[in-house]
Each structure stands twice: as C-alpha cells, then as structure tokens.
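thread: overnight batch results

M.L. [08:02]
morning all. the overnight job finished for the chain we discussed friday. pasting input first so we're all looking at the same thing
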Amino acid sequence: MACFNGCHCLADRRQNSILYSILKNDKQTELHARVHQGIAQQACSCGSKKKVTLRCQQITCKAASAVLVKTLKFIKNVPCFRELPGDDQLLLVRHCWAPLLVLGMAQDRIDFETTETPEPSILERILTNGQGIQEDPHQQNDLLSISETQGIKAFLGKCWGLDISTKEYAYLKGAALFNPDLPGLHCQHYIHGLQREAQQALNEYVKMVHREDPARFAKLFITLSMLRNINANVITELFFRPLIGTVNMEDLLLEMFYGK
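M.L. [08:03]
and the structure it wrote out:
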C-alpha cells in the first residue's frame, strides 16, 4: 500500500491522471493472421524460414537507437512511473521497452527493408568444413527469419494506415508501459488502474476529435494488441546487435536508463 501514497495521481484522478501526465511530458491479431495467410498463398511455408538481415543496416540501426533514447526519456518523464517501487520500475522497463520502441518507430515514420541472406549449401559446408560459417558469429546473430520481421512491418503499416496523431501515440505508449500482467509486480492493481486511465483518456480523445469514425478506438485498441507479439530478442538482433556486438542488451538498457 505504501507505493500508492506517494503518487498524486490517486489524490486527484482528473487533474493529475495519466491523461495529464502523458500530455505534459510528451509534445492484431486479425491483421497478423491476414499477413501470414497472404504469404502462405504466395509461397510455401519454408519461405518464412529464410534468413534476412537489414538492407541499410547502419542508417536503420542509428535511427532505432535514437528512438530508444527518446523512449527511455518518455518513461522517465511519466510522474506516476517514478512513484512506483524500484522493482516494479525495473520489471516494466525490461518488458515494455521493445513495444514502446516499435511505437516510437511508427511515430517517427522509421521504416526498414530486409534482404535475404542465402544459407551455405551442403557442398559449401563440406568443402569448408563449416569454417566459413563460424568466422563471423556477430554477423550470424543478425540473421532472422522473414516471419520474425514481418510482424513488425505489419504493425508499422497498420499505424501509418490509421494516421495516428501525437496525442494518440502518447496514450498508446501509456497503455503499453503500464502492463499489469507482468509476474512479480508489487503494485499490480495500481498499475492496472494506470493502464485503464490511459485507455480511457485515448477513448475520450478519439470521441472528441474523430466523431466521424466511431470505430477508431477499436481500431487503435486492436493495433495496440499487436504489440503482444513483438519479441524483444528479435528487436535486439535486428536493430541493435550490429551496433553493440556481444554486449547484453538488457545490461545496456538499464545502464542507459539509470545511468547519470
């Protein structure tokens, strides 16, 4: 209960709600299934297992890194987040940075292209005794399957198709940040309340600004649910491994967040 007392959000839900906090600090399932179905109709199932890497690696990774810095700054600037116990803050950062990053990439219109990387043939493996495959383990870590990257592309496309505004992105980030389903949270009910506030603020904003589209909130909510399929390891390998090499992404993330 002590974790609730320090947060002014509980004292005045209307004035210092997540709506106020986020605005102050920040000036899928269905679509995912359709993507998989469309690919299945165009190619055999083995196509989704083909390995890919970023086409413009240096440019894309640099852009993703800039979004990561902005993402961590966003988290730090949410007052209700700072009032949470340290352990809860740590859990939320560890598990929510990847979905928030992809939301940030969508907001900043950062697209990426991949290129297929053919695997060595059996003959090549025999002739080289597998030596060429192990010469550059850093490069091997960058290789992901098409199926691992197409979910990210689908999410970005969905966001851009909806033409989400800055305020809508802020509310979506709040809903993604305050995830009450993480095991081990001390203030789970409070965090759940913060998530509901973010969702309610989004709903109120959409009703006010998009009166001609009564289904917009449902569309945004479905889009937000697509983030559940975003894998942090895939995000790391695709956008950050080329830059950080063998450095542990979680260690780097926490150093960036808590470092002075």
